[in-house]
Amino acid sequence: MTAMDTVVVCNQDQMGHGDRGLGQRILQTFLQKSIALPDFTAIVFFNSGVQLVAAGSPVLAELRALEERGVDLVPCGTCLNHFGVTPAVGKVADMDSIVRELGRAAKVITL
Domain for residue 1, yes or no? Predict the structure, then answer.
């Protein structure tokens, strides 16, 4: 990581609170457009946000595209176990790794 790195946090499986369908649709659009974020280096997933890295995720194509462009996808292993999710993308992390990832970032965006 460099001094200007940006990390996005997904702590739920949608963007914002309220209508679930709308939240998932706008999250998909955000992920499609987010590659334009300067120095975008990682997305950290925890709680129900880990469901986004599963094989049936509505945003799996966007996450794969981001991963191919070099964005690290970092789902919480404890959360994956809790929800019974096997990740289709990303590298499973423990909380120590997640804390380090967030601590090194110059900017953290929570969705």
Answer: no
**Residue 41 belongs to domain spanning:** 6-110
Condensed to tens digits (0 to 9), the pLDDT of residues 53-74 reads 999 999 999 999 999 999 999 9
Q: What is the CATH number of the domain that holds 88?
A: 3.40.1260.10
Token pair of 29 as six digits: 């659009």
Q: How far is CA 61 from CA 17, 19, 95, in A?
A: 23, 22, 26
Report the number of distinct structural domains present in the chain: 1
Tell whether pTM > 0.70: yes
d(CA 54, CA 96): 22
- Provide DSSP, 38-80: TTEEEEEE-GGGGGGGBTT-TTHHHHHHHHHTT-EEEEBHHHH
| Cα dist from 109 to 81, 84, 85, 87, whole Å | 25, 26, 24, 22
* Tokens of residue 30, six digits: 């955000």
